[in-house]
């Protein structure tokens, strides 16, 4: 294996054996595994999300033909069982992810998740009508699915650094929407053979993805013999949460043994901004997951252009929300990099989500064209801040300067933020299951309130970012002035500042 220049470093104590598949390759440069890491983590989490889509696609089929789900509120209970235990499992999974081999941890999580998802579908083939069976299946699936997000964000954070992290992770985060789209299409296509297949097939696919991760994913550069954070200079730009002198110390740090330890959960909570962004994600993820679990059902129950569509057609149409989400995630990452202001960008998106939510509910039924356009706009504004907070913000805070560059907090911080967000994700679909019986006006009022709350929570950080932006602009202007004007010209321009 080709290693980067200098530095004989002692093997870090958390380094693990290279993946078996990569051991078969004779030579590998530093950038080759980076591309592989991007691709495999993208596929892995797309499969996680694809395996979460079947419940939303089969809701109407279950409510029409499969006791005990004639009451939509019971469908909401299965959603909350999954999401509540997903959220609780997230805090444990994040802490474990910073202690264990992330490759093995992710492999076990994916194969276990696939088994649990398929278990729900087995109920169809065994003609099971016990609510307890389906609740238990969702509880197991939720716990196992919590292994995914802290792991993939930590792995990306280990390999990629710099101020362009927002754009990179915005593009990479398209896996969420790609997973939702592919999961919807697969589940809808399988529905014609019986709703059980809508769970079995996505379950098999994520299990196969776990096998790929086992053979080819290297969580740390050190696992392949590269020094930690040994990025080329052009790539290793300073993160928004790091001081300039940190980058100057990287070479020196690489010469000594890596003694990084995983931080405790309370120390991770104490990182500035973690609690604020976690609470903001509680509300933004509540909105996003209400769409994730209830949008196909809403579309099938709502008259669009004077007629209602089938549940299969509604499942296909709902994927356009995620198409808008892909654009939103990339756009939010790009803007946040350009402004160097993550909170301000997120706040802009959540405030713009308020009128878009109202317009979708009020005017989405006028025609299919209006419905599609407004649905994609909602996807853009709802998923944009959700994607930004769960990726770039989590990675930035997981390597915050208060940790002295300790990247072993990545999975823990990611788990705290996304775990708190997942509590909102559990609450939204659960409440929707009850209040949707009385009409959808109340559901959209709840979503609008949550978007407003998310924006308000970010106010303090937004204020600080705006002050910082103004100061940076003034400093830059003054610097340019000093560089381009000499002492003989300055008096003509009004003298020294």
TrEMBL record:
PROSITE patterns associated with the record: MFS
Regions that span the bilayer: 80-97, 104-126, 132-160, 172-191, 197-218, 269-294, 314-334, 346-363, 369-389, 409-431, 443-462
Membrane topology: Multi-pass membrane protein
GO CC annotation: membrane
Entry keyword set: Membrane, Sugar transport, Transmembrane, Transmembrane helix, Transport
Location of this chain's protein in the cell: Membrane
Keyword 4Fe-4S listed: no
Protein name: Major facilitator superfamily (MFS) profile domain-containing protein
């Amino acid at each position: 294996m080709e290693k980067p220049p200098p530095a004989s470093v002692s093997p870090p104590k958390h380094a693990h054996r290279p993946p078996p598949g990569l051991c078969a390759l004779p030579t590998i440069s530093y950038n080759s595994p980076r591309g592989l890491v991007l691709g495999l983590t993208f596929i892995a989490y797309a499969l996680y999300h694809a395996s979460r889509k079947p419940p939303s696609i089969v809701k109407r089929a279950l409510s029409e033909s499969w006791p005990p789900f004639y009451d939509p509120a019971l469908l909401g209970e299965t959603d909350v069982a999954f999401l509540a235990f997903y959220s609780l499992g997230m805090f444990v999974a994040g802490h474990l992810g910073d202690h264990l081999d992330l490759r093995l941890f992710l492999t076990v999580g994916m194969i276990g998740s696939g088994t649990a998802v398929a278990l729900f579908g087995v109920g169809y083939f065994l003609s099971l009508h016990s609510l307890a069976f389906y609740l238990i299946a969702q509880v197991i699936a939720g716990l196992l699915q919590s292994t995914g997000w802290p792991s993939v964000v930590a792995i990306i954070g280990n390999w990629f650094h710099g101020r362009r992290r927002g754009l990179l992770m915005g593009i990479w985060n398209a896996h969420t929407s790609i997973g939702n789209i592919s999961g919807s299409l697969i589940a809808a296509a399988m529905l014609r053979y019986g709703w059980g297949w809508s769970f079995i097939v996505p379950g098999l696919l994520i299990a196969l993805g776990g096998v790929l991760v086992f053979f080819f994913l290297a969580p740390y550069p050190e696992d392949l013999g590269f020094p930690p954070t040994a990025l080329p200079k052009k790539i290793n730009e300073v993160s928004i949460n790091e001081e300039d002198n940190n980058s100057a110390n990287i070479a020196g740090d690489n010469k000594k043994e890596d003694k990084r330890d995983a931080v405790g959960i309370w120390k991770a909570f104490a990182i500035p901004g973690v609690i604020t962004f976690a609470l903001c994600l509680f509300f933004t993820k509540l909105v996003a997951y209400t769409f994730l679990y209830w949008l196909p059902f809403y579309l099938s129950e709502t008259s669009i252009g004077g007629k209602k569509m089938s549940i299969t057609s509604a499942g296909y149409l709902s994927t356009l929300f995620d198409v808008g989400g892909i654009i939103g995630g990339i756009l939010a990452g790009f803007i946040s990099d350009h402004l160097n202001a993550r909170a301000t960008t997120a706040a802009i998106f959540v405030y713009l989500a308020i009128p878009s939510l109202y317009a979708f509910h009020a005017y989405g039924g006028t025609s299919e064209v209006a419905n599609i356009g407004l649905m994609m706009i909602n996807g853009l504004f709802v998923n944009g801040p959700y994607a930004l907070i769960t990726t770039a913000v989590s990675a930035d805070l997981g390597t915050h300067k208060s940790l002295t560059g300790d990247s072993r907090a990545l999975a823990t911080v990611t788990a705290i933020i996304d775990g708190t967000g997942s509590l909102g994700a559990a609450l939204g679909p659960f409440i929707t299951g009850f209040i949707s019986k009385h009409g959808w006006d109340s559901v959209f009022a709840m979503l609008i309130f949550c978007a407003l709350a998310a924006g308000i929570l970010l106010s303090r950080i937004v204020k600080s970012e705006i002050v910082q932006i103004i100061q940076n602009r003034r400093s830059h202007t003054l610097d340019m002035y000093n560089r381009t004007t000499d002492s003989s010209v300055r008096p003509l321009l009004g003298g020294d500042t």
